[in-house]
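Repro:
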Amino acid sequence: MPLSPSATRDLLDQLGHFPKRALGQNFLVDGNIVNKSLELAGVRAGDTVVEVGPGLGTLTIALLEAGADLWAVEFDRHLHAHLESTLGPRFPGKFHLMEGDAVEHPLAALPAERAAAGFKVVANLPYAISTPWMDAVFSGPLPTNLVLMLQQEAAQRYAASPGTKQFGAISIFLQSAYDIAPGHKVAAACFHPRPDIESYLLNLVRKPAPFVFAPEVKLLIRACFQQRRKQLGALLRDKLPDAGQAWFAILAAGGCSPQSRAEEVPVALWQKLTIPAPLAG
């Protein structure tokens, strides 16, 4: 059973651990939301699952009890030691826990052969690392499903449509590889300590033919959104000489132009952007 609010407070007291705001340590205390996370991800016995920031282990235990082969990464040394000593013996051979930075180890040291066979991600993702972590994951290998607990503002940004102020580079990278399935709103009362804003379970399902951007193209797209008010023609004039100008013809055919701003260009047109070899090298 997931840890209740009182059980969470008692365990924190026993461990002498004070939640660290800088690490986004708001611990999930609602069993219904834990169960909803597993339901959205379709977790079944034998699934390979990656978890980021397991914390006190509320979601972790539910995943393991569902029969998942779980790979997790925890940054906090104190909580890592707690999980290693309590869940390691309880789930031998099924619980693989590493101590480290999730941005540096986005898949928690999941072996390449296991990743190639297919895996899911279910995580209560710390807000401070959500975008860089997702950017790392979208470089591949790609999970089949991701169910991520995020601050609602972040979830809205990832799912944003072109033409809105929330639409950005990470929206393009995510929506090129994943379909956004129905998720679930999560009230602040479902956490301890209670955060200041609402959260959301973002439910992502890998597309049948996911598109992954080349690293140099991702850098260029990010640069365009760092100067959102500028027109693309001015931003890319020196970066896409000659052969690269073909992209502007593609924009025109798609209803955009060099006078368009980055947020106005649909995801499918961004996927047509390429960098000539001399610039890419």
